[in-house]
Structures are given as C-alpha cells and as structure tokens.
C-alpha cells in the first residue's frame, strides 16, 4: 500500500504536480471505537500484524474496554493469543502496551498468565515493577493460586468462553475451538443452568462464526470423527446451520431449553432453591463475536461488535 501511494506521488511529481497537493489524505485511526477494534481483532488471524497490537491495547484502555472484566474476555484472550503466537517478541510487545492505568493493568496480567507462553511466570515477575498495584494478582498467578485459562472450568462465567474466542482470533489455532466443541453436550443439559447456557451459547456462536469462516467450518467438520455420538449429532446441527445460514433453529432450541428451566427448574432439583442458583448464573445466551462477523439478529440484547456473552444476562435471569 505504501509503495503504491509513493508511486502515485512520484508520477504526479514527474507530471509537475506539487508533492503537497499529491499527498493522500491522512489514514483514519483504526482503533477509535469498540466496534472498530473488534472488527480488526476478528480479521487479525488472516493477516497478523503484532506490531499494531500494543496500539490497539492502549486504545482499548482509553475507551474503557478493560474496566469490566466480565465483558473484557475477548480482548484478554486476544492479547494472550498474540503473546503465545510471538514468544520471542512477547516481552517487547508487552512493554509497548504501557503506560497503562493501574485498574486496566489487570487485563495485561491476565493476558500474560493465560497466554501459555513457556516463560509467562518470568514475564509477570519482570513486569511486576511496572505494575505495583497488581502485585497481589501477579503473586497469585505465579504461585498457582489463581487458575490460568487452561485450568478454568467453562461453566464458571462468561470470561473463559470469551477468552477462547479471543485466542482463536489471534491465532486461528484449533485448540480453543476444540475446547469449545468439548462442551457442546451441555446444550442438552437439563439440570445445570450454567452448563445449559454455556453449551447453548457455544453452539450458537460456533454456527454463526463458522458461517463466515471456512477454516473454522473445516475444523468443526474434521473434529466429528473424534467426538462422541452425542457431540457429533450437535456438531451436525452446527455445521448445517453454518452452511445454510439458518441460525433460527439453533436459537429457538436454546431459548426453549432455557425457558423450560426457567419455568420448571432442573429435573434433579424442582424446588425454589433452584432460583437462587439461577440468579447466580454468570452468563446468558448472548452473541459473542456475532457482531464482529456481521450483525446477526438473534432476538436478545447484544453488544454490537460481539465482545461479550454477559450482555444478555438480565434477559435470561428469572424475574429480570
């Protein structure tokens, strides 16, 4: 692109047009809104540009995207994936993410810890001097008191699933996708509201994203040969929805299952105690990354750009 613009300027100069008049308009900033950042993240794996990541991180901080960790999972996962994919450059990339307000440094700490970098503990210790306010969190990760992404259970909140999507966007790796596939059976769970919502959300977002990502669709098809009979059946539904752009059935099935739980409670616990558990569910059937791939009407509250699953929490919790 630069060489092409330089050639235009050179041609115009040779034709006698002043260089000042030939100069193209200044390129607009790529990271002025959450929507722009998410779209850039979504396309990153097809054309990685790690040099731009620190700028993106600082812009996300300025926009306040790290302030609520319940909705920052996709950004943390993406940062973690970039660190993982660039192990030799990791220290330099992290250093360029600063300066960062103390409250937003949590995102950097978590990204390093969740990266899977072979020396992630050493990196955290090295940067601890620049993040004195995060010393307690750093110590917990380094000593194993705080779980990393690989250790987190996916039914413990919206964050883990969002982070897996972020990692996929950064790397295009099948690892986070296969971990999501491993919980698809939860979309049929009739007893655990957290697992039902996570499984349903996973099913819907895999279908939505695979419809626009052939590499992801191919991963899902290839994984069928290794999965259980139950998971294969659900994967067939995901693939069919992705190939036909028919997401309505996936959404309706998910909503019907959750509505049944809202009305009756789990089969194993049909009593009022369940409502306390339901009220504590950490996430809801949402639209992770759907907006980043192109708006998808799924009939419930959604953050444009698709960063978070927790956006629809109030819609799903009984009585809200």
Outline the structure in words.
This protein has 320 residues and is mainly α. It folds into two domains: 34-142; 183-316, no CATH class. Helices cover 57% and strands 0% of the residues. It is built from 18 helices and no strands. The chain has helices spanning 2-14, 19-22, 34-44, 53-62, 73-85, 90-95, 105-114, 120-127, 135-142, 158-171, 174-181, 193-210, 214-223, 229-244, 248-264, 273-279, 290-293, 313-316. The longest helix is centred in the middle third of the chain and has 18 residues, at 193-210. The termini are far apart. The model is unreliable at 1-23 and 270-320 (pLDDT under 50).
Summary keywords:
320 residues, 18 helices
Topology:
Layout: H1 2-14, H2 19-22, H3 34-44, H4 53-62, H5 73-85, H6 90-95, H7 105-114, H8 120-127, H9 135-142, H10 158-171, H11 174-181, H12 193-210, H13 214-223, H14 229-244, H15 248-264, H16 273-279, H17 290-293, H18 313-316
